[in-house]
Amino acid sequence: MLQRFADLAVSVGSNMQPGQILCIEAETGMEPIVRAVAERAYEGGARFVDPVYFDPYVKRARLQHAADDTLEFVPSWYGNRMTALGHEHAARIVFVPRVSPGILNGVDPRRAGRDQLPDLRERLEIINKRLVNWSILPFPTPHWAELVHKELSPEEALEKLTQELLHVCRLDEDDPVAAWRERDQTLHSVARRLTKENLDAVRFEGPGTEITIGLLPSSTWEGGSTTTIDGVEYLPNVPTEEVYTTPDPTRAEGVVRATKPLDIGGTIIDGLTVRFENGRAVDIQADGGADVLRERAAYDEDASRLGEVALVDREGRIGPLGTTFYNTLLDENAASHIALGNAYELAVGEEDVPRINKSAIHIDFMIGGDDVRVTGLTADGKEVPVLRDGSWQL
């Protein structure tokens, strides 16, 4: 298992090149996969492998005991280090969860919402500048497994989660690389067809959801692999089942109901509904954990506006499992979703880059499903069916 995950991370996900520095970011307890990736990377010609561990229990201690006015403080060397990775045109592999879901249960949600670590603003900056070839992948942890499969014994839960991750990462295929190339071509094909429709907005309609999200004049749809400014092709998310675009942050009207629980840095938010007016989230309600998202949405001027719209059909491997993973990487690729905060420059033309969301946060939450209709709207009023019963209509 370790070897298969390591091969996937190095050769398919990040596509690390000989001579590159490779940074591996993981949660404490994930040392075995970090070491396996390091060995695979050095075999592939890495110049240097730099492991970085984040301890979620240290984060919990901070939130429980640190002075209130220190919770947003991040030492300068954290950001400087991320910027230096961009300067070096390094490769980067991140294993999630770095804060296993549920670890922050019982922590004051208002305090939890103010501490963004391990996320950094600089991470978004080097991604938008296309300086690093990077990939985020899941790796099973006992704490995570016990939450996802609480009906099983700890050993059985870890085994089941492991097998599910092998499946959704296509590591149960005889040739995972070929399997990902095929899926990548499908996602690129759908993205091209959506871009050709020249949509002005996208409307979501379903139980508890009725929202119209405006796009920018140059918004394009992306999916699957992308490339750095050096021409290195890589797969940012493994697994990935989405096509996405960058919306107009000033144009979102309506209400959305999250179709899956949301994990924000270890706090689980259930029963989430968000109302938008003039592009801004003006009302955030949930059965539990709403204060965490409210704090994040107030983090800066644009944190309450959208930075991404993503569509997912029912042909991927995650949704059919019926498992709620309480992890954004997996759950966002099970259903269509939107994101508050920072937008991707890749999905707009250069002329619209000044208009996109530049917030320091980026939080995805799932609003799609087989019972959610997605319709594209053109500037001249034409309606284009996009998703019906979870299937593409293009």
Q: How would you sum up this structure, described in words?
A:
With about 400 residues, this protein is α+β, with helices and mostly antiparallel strands. It has eleven helices and 21 strands. It has helices at about 1-15, 30-45, 55-65, 75-85, 110, 120-130, 140-150, 155-170, 175-195, 290-295, 330, and strands at about 20-25, 50-55, 90-95, 135-140, 200-205, 210-215, 220-225, 225, 235, 240-245, 245-255, 260-265, 265-270, 275, 280-285, 305-310, 335-340, 360-365, 375, 385-390, 390. Strands 15-14-11-6-5-19-20-21 form an eight-stranded antiparallel β-sheet. Strands 7-10-16-17-18 form a five-stranded antiparallel β-sheet, covered by helices on one side. Helix 1 packs across helix 2 (about 30-45) and helix 7 (about 140-150) packs across helix 8. The longest helix has 21 residues, at about 175-195. The mean pLDDT is about 95.
Q: Whole-number radius of gyration?
A: 20 Å
Specify the overall morphology.
Answer: globular
By secondary-structure content and strand pairing, the structural class works out as alpha+beta
Number of helical segments with 4 or more residues: 11
Mean pLDDT: 94
In this structure, how is the largest beta sheet organized? 8 strands, antiparallel
| Lateral strand order in the biggest sheet | 15-14-11-6-5-19-20-21
Residues in helices, as a percent range: 25-40%
Give the N-to-C terminal Cα separation. Answer: 38 Å
Low-confidence stretches: none
